[in-house]
Design a protein that fits this description.
The chain is an all-alpha fold. It has 11 helices and no strands. About 65% of the residues lie in helices and about 0% in strands. InterPro entries: DNA-bd_HTH_TetR-type_CS, Homeodomain-like_sf, HTH_TetR, Tet_transcr_reg_TetR-rel_C_sf. Pfam families: TetR_N.
């Protein structure tokens, strides 16, 4: 229909027709768009970290991850790749955020003995802190792991720590800070065993004070300059 001024006037059914047209083109007011829901990647990654830390690699399924991360499987794969790739990123974040006390102690303390005592004491605190699972993710995630690549990656990380302990101990032996006959490899492996054992003890409910008492005993066997090492 046409107005007196020549413009088109809606007929009695014009409004309804316009609404139907808008609905058919997807432009009706209030209609949600079909874009995927966005999410905070860092928050989702932290939630995945806590899930792997609590349950281990093998026991944490993709459905568990999508549930705790509050995202769909397509979003998980798009943002992180597959489960294994997500776990590798989780381990990197864990090392920087929760496990860096080992590297700091080795870098900042003047002797191997001081570094090991410090990292064991800090482990006693870190492994029993509230607000996150107890123990060490790198130790616990390997339990019952049947994925060879993941198992090997975690083993390599633990062995790298032992190699770093041994290197630092050998340096002190060469400098005279430890007796010449010190078995650097055995002492380094003892430190690794302490770290791994403290992680499991924390998982089993040991308190920080109980683990610190273990540290006292562990450090009492360390050789000192001028002592007989057997």
């Amino acid at each position: 229909m046409v107005n007196d001024d020549g413009t088109t006037r809606a007929g009695p059914h014009g409004t309804a027709q316009a609404e139907r047209l808008g609905a058919s083109t997807g432009k009706a007011k209030g209609r949600p768009r079909g874009r995927p829901r966005s999410f905070d990647r860092e928050t989702a990654l932290e939630k995945a970290l806590l899930a792997f830390w609590e349950h281990g690699y093998e026991a944490t399924s993709v459905s568990d991850l999508t549930r705790v991360m509050d995202i769909g499987a397509p979003s998980l794969y798009a943002a992180f790749g597959d489960k294994r790739s997500l776990f590798e990123e989780v381990v990197q974040v864990y090392g920087a955020r929760y496990g860096s006390f080992t590297d700091r102690a080795l870098a900042e303390e003047p002797t191997a003995r001081a570094a090991v005592e410090r990292l064991l004491r800090e482990a006693a605190t870190a492994y029993t802190e509230p607000g996150h699972p107890h123990g060490c993710l790198v130790v616990h995630a390997a339990a019952n792991c049947s994925t060879p690549e993941v198992e090997q990656s975690l083993r390599d990380r633990r062995n790298a720590d032992i190699a770093a302990f041994e290197s630092r101990i050998r340096t002190d032996v060469a400098a005279g800070a430890l007796p010449r006959g010190t078995d650097s490899a055995a002492l380094a492996r003892h430190t690794g065993a302490m770290i791994q054992g403290m992680s499991q003890q924390a998982r089993d409910g040991a308190s920080r004070e109980e683990l610190e008492a273990v540290v006292e005993i562990a450090m009492s066997i360390w050789p000192r300059t001028g002592t007989h090492t057997g």
